[in-house]
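TODO from last week: model Related to indigoidine systhesis protein.
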Amino acid sequence: MNILFDLDGTLTDSSDGITRCIQHALTELGHPAPPKEELFACIGPPLIHSFLNRLGVKEEKDALRAVAIYRERYTRIGCFENRLYPNIEEILEELKSAGHQLFVATAKPQPQVAPILDHFQIISFFSGIYGAHPDGRHTDKTELIASIIEREQIDPKNTVMIGDREYDMLGARNNRVGAIGANYGYGSAQELKKSGAQYLVENAGDIPACIAGLNLPL
C-alpha cells in the first residue's frame, strides 16, 4: 500500500515552532500576537489564509510579508522547535518492513521538509517527499495528492492519506484515496469525520493496526 503522511500534527508536534513564528511575524508587522493556544487552528491551512482570515491582517501584501517573515525565522529556528510524536521511528520501520511505500505530503514549503526529516533521522523511510512549491503551487492538498499520484504512478485504490486536518481528508476524498484522521494532532474528531475521514486513530501507535485492517470503501 502507498501511505501518504502529513507532517505537522501527524509525524511531528511542531506547535512550538509554528506558533512562535506566527507570533514573531505578527509582532514585526505591529499586530497583536495571540497566545499559543489560540494559534492551533493556524497549523495546517496555508499560512497566507491564516494571516488574512484568522489573524487580522487586512491586505494581501501585508499577509505575504508576514509569510516571508515567518519563513525566515522558521528556516533558522522554528523547524527545530519541534518533536516527533512517540514511537514514530518504530512505526515507520514497521510499515516499511511490511512492504508499504511511504511518502510525505505536506503543505509546508518543499525546501523545509527534508531538513526536518533529516534532523529527526527518519528521512530514509520515505520513497518520496512532497511539499508546496515556493511559488504557492501545491499548498492545496487536493492538488498536492493529485501531483503525487501522477508523478509516482501509484494506484489511488491502493493509497491512503494520514493527516490531522480537514484539508488532508478533503484532499484524500477528492482524489479517491483512503483517509485516516490523526485524532492526536491539531484538528478535532468532528472536523476529521465531517471532511471525509474513514477511520480515526487516537495516537500514532494505532496506525500500523489500522493500516493492516483497512477495507477502504472507495
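Done. The CA atoms of residues 54 and 119 lie 31 Å apart.
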